[in-house]
Amino acid sequence: MSAPVSTEPVLSVRDLSVSFRSDTRTVHAVDQVSFDLRAGEVLAVVGESGCGKSVTSMAVMGLLPPTAHITGSVRIGEKELAGADDKAYGKIRGNDIAMIFQEPMTSLNPVLTIGRQIGEVLRRHQGLNKKQARARAVELLDLVGIPAPAERVDEYPHQLSGGMRQRVMIAIAVACDPAVLIADEPTTALDVTVQAGILEVLQSLRERLGTAIVLITHDLGVVADTADRVLVMYAGRPVEQAPVHELFADPKHPYTRGLLSAVLRPGGEGKRRLPEIPGLVPSLDSQPDACTFAPRCARADDTCTSSRPGLKAVAADAGADAPHRAACWHPHTLQETVS
Ligand SMILES: Nc1ncnc2c1ncn2[C@@H]1O[C@H](COP(=O)(O)OP(=O)(O)OP(=O)(O)O)[C@@H](O)[C@H]1O
Ligand code: SF4
Ligand SMILES: [Mg+2]
């Protein structure tokens, strides 16, 4: 899949860490995540449940509760968002960056027509009058592939299927043409044929509007079909980053190998969801100076259990900002078959 990709990142995240503190414990939900996203690019974020995917995106969106302690930098173009107050974020959300969630029904207001809900965003952010907002709402419904948009604009959420409601949520998210769209499991609640339609909508947004997309998904088939690059997270930490074809062809981190093995094994092509890897995800109460995957890793040795591996370029001749990086003391080589 191709789309024009500019060189300047529209979203730049550096050393983002998030912990939640209560009287009794501190949960280190996200630990030094960094990535860049350019216009028209799709970054997939994958990892087991609880590895910090949603907390990362909520931190970028400024939507975490006050109990969250956030460090690091989040830049949208020239704007630094870290430390921005609610008022500043209010201007950024919707205009520069928007998010869609897994469950479209809970995010829509059941007593307002979909046209009114899209129109409200346009009136608030872009100062359109009622007539202009309605006309633009019809255009947006058309953009997200809702048939007969001029009629459906007056319908209520319960009159629409789950897939159509998710399209409405996307229309609301992109109403003000944000540079970045974060989609957190946007198709998980939908059946497979409906999922494909939603992914097509995301593809067309990136192609027609140049929207940069962070796509959080458990579905490795979706990653392969949709993403340009992939960020693999484990227990709050980034463990591998790579262009999508490289990640599938030559996964370096044992955790990534574990995730991909079920898909890559002969006959395993039908398995799209993340497989179970033996062992438990570690508690997030501490930040050990060790590889957190060591208890589940067949390659673990004393180095792994006594010092934390940083993300490093995995090709010997690559620079520090190489596109393929892994946080592992003993990364796999291309020659090793995926087991
Ligand atoms: N408000 C909060 N207070 C305390 N801990 C939290 C809070 N929100 C999330 N966490 C913890 O942060 C960790 C990361 O959660 P997160 O929701 O980002 O996982 P995820 O990767 O999105 O998982 P899933 O695939 O299930 O959606 C989890 O251990 C979670 O319990
Ligand atoms: S650093 Fe060691 S324990 Fe961690 S993934 Fe690599 S080989 Fe396994
Ligand atoms: Mg999540």
From TrEMBL:
A GO molecular-function annotation? ATP binding
Q: Which controlled-vocabulary keywords does the entry list?
A: ATP-binding, Cell membrane, Membrane, Nucleotide-binding, Transport
Q: Taking every annotated instance into account, which residue ranges of this chain make up the domain ABC transporter? A: 13-260
Q: Which Pfam families match?
A: ABC_tran, oligo_HPY
Recorded hits in SUPFAM superfamilies, A to Z, give: P-loop containing nucleoside triphosphate hydrolases
SMART domains documented for this protein = AAA
Q: Which domain of life is it from?
A: Bacteria
- Entry's localization field: Cell membrane
Question: What kind of membrane protein is this, topologically?
Answer: Peripheral membrane protein
> Carries keyword Transcription regulation?
no
* Protein family (similarity comment): Belongs to the ABC transporter superfamily.
- UniProt name for this protein: ABC transporter ATP-binding protein
Q: Which organism is it from?
A: Streptomyces endophyticus
> Organism classification, top ranks?
Bacteria, Bacillati, Actinomycetota, Actinomycetes, Kitasatosporales
